[in-house]
Amino acid sequence: MSTLRLELDVGNSSLKWRLMSGAQRLDGGRLTESPMAIADLLRAGPAVVHIASVRSETRNQELVDALTLAGVPFSFARSQRECAGLSNSYADITKMGVDRWLVMVAAFVDCGRPCVVIDAGTALTIDIVGGTGVHLGGYIIAGAGLSAKALAEHTGRVRFGGEEQFSLAPGVDTEGCVHHGKWLAQLGAIMAALQQAEEAIGDLAEVYITGGDAPTLLGLAGAQASRWRYREELVLDGLAAVMAAP
Q1: CB 14 within 8 A of CB 8
Q2: Global pTM?
Q3: Cα–Cα distance for residue pair 64/103, rounded to 1 Å
Q4: What angle do CA 193, 196, 201 make, to 5 degrees?
Q5: How far is CA 100 from the centre of its chain?
Q6: Count of CB atoms situated within 10 Å of the CB of 235
Q7: Quick check: helix, strand or coil at residue 134?
Q8: What's the pLDDT tens digit per position in 138-166?
Q9: Residue 19: enclosing H or E segment and its boundaries?
Q10: Which are the catalytic amino acids?
C-alpha cells in the first residue's frame, strides 16, 4: 500500500500542495484549485490527503466531492485547544482560522521559545506566542492587495493602475502613493506588533514569516528583518505536526 501523503494548504486565492513520504518532501507547488488540478495531484497515488482550508464549507465541498469520487481518505485540520505544547487563547477555538493555528504550531515546534508568527497573504495575520507556548494574542489586518482594492472600490477620486510598485518612499503620483503606502502600512503594522510582542514577552522573540507577500516584505524591511525566519511552507509544516500528534 502506498505510504505517500498529499498535504494541501487551501487559501483564499490559491492552493499550495506538497507530496510527502514520511518526513521526506518529494514534490510541491502552488496552483489554482480546480477538480482537474486535484485529479492531477491524486495521480501520484497518495494513501491519504491532509487538508488545511480557510475557505467556506460550501467551497470546501467541491474538494470533498473530488476526493470522495477518487476514493482517497482525507482529513481536515481544525484549530485546537492545545497541540505540541501550544495553547490556544481563544475562548471559542472554532473562531480561529486554522491557518493561524497551524503556523503557530509549526513555529513553536521549530524553536520552542517565544515567537511572533507573521502570515502575509490576502490578510496579514500576526500572532504572539510566549515562552511556555501560550498564545498571547494577535492581529488580523487587510493584506497589501486587499487594502489597495478597498481604496479603489470605496473612494471616489483615488484612481490608480499601472504596474505593481515595491517601495517605501513617498509617492509622487497617485499610483505611487497607493502602492508605496500599502507596503508602508504592512511593514509599519509588523514593526508595531513586534514592539507589542517584546513588551508582552519581556524578551526578544523569534520571528517567522510566511505567505505570498513575505518575500516582498523581507526585501522592504532590509536589515530590520535580518533575524526573521522565512518559511514558505509554514502552514504545511504545522499541518504535518498536527496530524502526527497523538
Answers
A1: no
A2: 0.93
A3: 23
A4: 120
A5: 7
A6: 30
A7: strand
A8: 999 999 999 988 888 877 656 666 667 89
A9: strand 15-21
A10: 99
Task: Tell me the C-alpha distance between 192 and 48, whole Å.
Answer: 41
Contact 187, 220 (CB under 8 A): yes
Per the structure block, which three cell numbers stand in for 44?
A: 501520484
Residues of the chain with pLDDT under 70: 1-2, 33-35, 156-163
> Cα–Cα distance between 207 and 189 in angstroms, integer?
14
The letter for the amino acid at 31 is L
CA distance 72 to 2: 11
- Which amino acid is present at 228? W
Name the phi and psi angles at 31, rounded to 5: -150, 165
Sheet arrangement for strand 24-31: 24-31, 15-21, 4-10, 48-53, 74-76
Burial label, 37 (beta-carbon count in 10 A; 0-12, 13-18, 19+): middle
Q: Angle 103-31-35 (CA atoms, 0-180°, nearest 5)?
A: 110
